[in-house]
Amino acid sequence: MKVTVTIDGGSKEVERGTTYEAVVKEYQPAYDNMIAAVAANGRIRELFKKINRDCTITFFTWKDNVGHKTYVRTATMLFFKAVFDVFGAASARECRLEFAIGHGYYIDPGDKIAANAENVEKIKKRMQELVDAGAPFMKKTCPLDEAMDIFRTQGMKDKEKLFHYRMNSQVNLYQIDGYYDYYYGYMLPNAGYVKYFDLIPYGKGFMLLLPTRNNPLEVEPFKEQKQLFETMLVSEDWGTKIGIENVGDLNDEICRGSMNEFILMQEAEQERKIGEIAKEIVSRSNVKFVMIAGPSSSGKTSFSHRLSVQLRTLGKKPHPIALDNYFVDRQFTPRDENGDYNFECLEAIDIKQFNEDMCKLLAGERVELPTFNFKIGKREYLGDYKQLGPDDILVLEGIHGLNDKMSFALPKESKFKIYISALTSLNIDGHNRIPTTDGRLLRRMVRDARTRGSDARRTIQMWPSVRKGEEENIFPFQEDADVMFNSALVYELAVLKQYAEPLLFQIPKDAAEYYEAKRLLKFLSYFLNVTSESLPNNSICREFTGGSCFNV
Questions:
Q1: For the whole model, what pTM was predicted?
Q2: CA-based diameter of the chain, in Å?
Q3: Is 140 left (phi over 0), alpha (psi -120 to 50) or beta?
């Protein structure tokens, strides 16, 4: 029996039971990048799935968010399968996918495998053998109890704990040549698709190098980001010390009814680190400008206020200032390739005026600072005069704070640079990490709805543009910071869930943003809820949920 498949406005008949992969092969030559998955009647389908009804199909390539994530997920399982084959089940179980540094995915091997060149070659060789053989990935839908038995048998306590809190009656498991695992998301049909990868020893573990979305057909050389790597390791170590390394651990803590105490402990740890940064600033007697920068929804504003409080306790007189007040008037704002205003490029800032004002302040002169009126798109002068005394410090917050072109006229010793980002250290389980961008996207979504009346669809729609601006204007300078601060809170996704879910459910099925909304909803379903009532009013999380004591 035949069914009708519609692609790019044209229709064709195929036998019922034909795989999507078989159909894709006919259209693949028209695409520069490999097709990784399809959407059939608005639902994402893996290529090994069969077509059983009439459908309209669109494609996701490796350059699409869905396609790239599918490639990364498949390559990750391939790594764990290779470890399983070379070093045994216990070693594969102990390996943990921790976080990403650029296009590298850091894997902690635990105590059973030495992360040396010899072992790297063994794992790479086995991965390549599986690729060359085109080893198929099989998807098995089984009852929850059966899946729990598999996890228990294989000693995967993190997955067993994770699914203890799942309401679903069934679980999708993936299997490749006798190795079972669970992954949050979709998989490629076989290992032969994973054509591009590399593996290097790094730190005490492995760095799995994979193509980027922008360059999906090769693996770029790994670029070290030592400060970022160390900051992520410190956060991972703290999670280990407090016994919360994954979502199952967090859900256990919530069920124990001890979240109030845990929240206070987490907030105290952040306050301790902010206090240490303040002490380091004060120890440098020439510092007059604290430059704070970080990607969207990092909590820069709350952090700058909390840092200012700490500086006051040390006898300093901090003055928080937003670099956005130095925006050029709207008619002079550069436009991007789509003709939209590019507020995130350096040229959107009046660098000349900023440096003139800062140099005058450094020289002890009295200066009137501007305020940018976003409604009319112009700078205004409303009598905000500043004059720096011996104990005065300006706390400057903006995306270009780490770029020396922003403050080219200021002496190096007068500046203290801080990079802040929400570097999520919590993972779903040992083999499923939580991208830091997911946490920031959810933060922004909740804040946009609360403060700007923007819906989640708009936030998701704008996110690629926001990310592009970050990659051009923030990330290249992060390693130049004097210190990095991780603003992510272990508990925050359980808090954001109650705000984000209703927003995501509003996105209609025919919207382009629907697929990302569904992915985020599935992701949030792993978490139990935590009420925001227990959050201190100076918490960075309150910059997004509301109720902050600061003007954020």
A1: 0.95
A2: 85
A3: beta
